[in-house]
Amino acid sequence: MLNALFGKKATMPTADEALPGRAEAIPTADTHFISGRPLKSPVPEGMEEAMFGMGCFWGVERKFWQLDGTWLTMVGYSGGSTPNPTYHETCTGRTGQNEVVRVIYDPKVISYEDLLKVFWEGHDPTQGNRQGNDVGTQYRSGIYTYSDRQTEAAEESREVYAQRLKAAGYGPITTEIVPASPFYFAEDYHQQYLAKNPGGYCGVGGTGVSCPIGLKA
């Protein structure tokens, strides 16, 4: 039904169908609106990175910047074929890119499993290429991993949470778990959008089903 209503917006384009994009990065903010830290700084020694797609990235980023142990957050596009896409291009459904949040965190303060808990509980991972009223491949649920350990933890948590969701009457999880592909920064106004616009729209909501932090049910 969704494909009939929304056409290619809910269907992943092939590499040949994708928009060409551009070689140069699109302009974005220099610093984080809340912390003032440089958005494009290298990952500090002792810290790690994670990347998630769980619907409109405005609300998703807020969930992660509020966590103790988060050093930096940024929104952008990843998981598709079009290099350095704009927001408008991503919204056409012809880039394959997902709206994502990249998180730099201190594992001595917050674990990757803690981030996975926020991910699973912060949206509905059973909706396919949509999240609530937001429809399109750019709103799909995804975990983009930077190590084998992250992949293992993500896959094991998906198995555990799938059992919890099934018991609550939800359908199968549609979340993709794949190695992280290039991250392309979103435009300036998207970065920390809900800090700049506290009353802004945020179409991200969870199922109400809790997820255990550990890897065992």
TrEMBL record:
GO terms for biological process: cellular response to oxidative stress. Keywords: Oxidoreductase. Has an important function as a repair enzyme for proteins that have been inactivated by oxidation. Catalyzes the reversible oxidation-reduction of methionine sulfoxide in proteins to methionine. The active site is at C56. Gene3D superfamilies: Peptide methionine sulphoxide reductase MsrA (3.30.1060.10). PANTHER family: MITOCHONDRIAL PEPTIDE METHIONINE SULFOXIDE REDUCTASE. Transmembrane segments: none annotated. One of its GO terms (molecular function) is L-methionine:thioredoxin-disulfide S-oxidoreductase activity. Its EC number is 1.8.4.11. This is Peptide methionine sulfoxide reductase MsrA. Residues 49-202 form the Peptide methionine sulphoxide reductase MsrA domain. It holds the Pfam family PMSR. InterPro entries: Met_Sox_Rdtase_MsrA_dom, Met_Sox_Rdtase_MsrA_sf, MsrA_MetSO_reductase. Belongs to the MsrA Met sulfoxide reductase family. It catalyses: [thioredoxin]-disulfide + L-methionine + H2O = L-methionine (S)-S-oxide + [thioredoxin]-dithiol; L-methionyl-[protein] + [thioredoxin]-disulfide + H2O = L-methionyl-(S)-S-oxide-[protein] + [thioredoxin]-dithiol. GO terms for cellular component: cytoplasm.
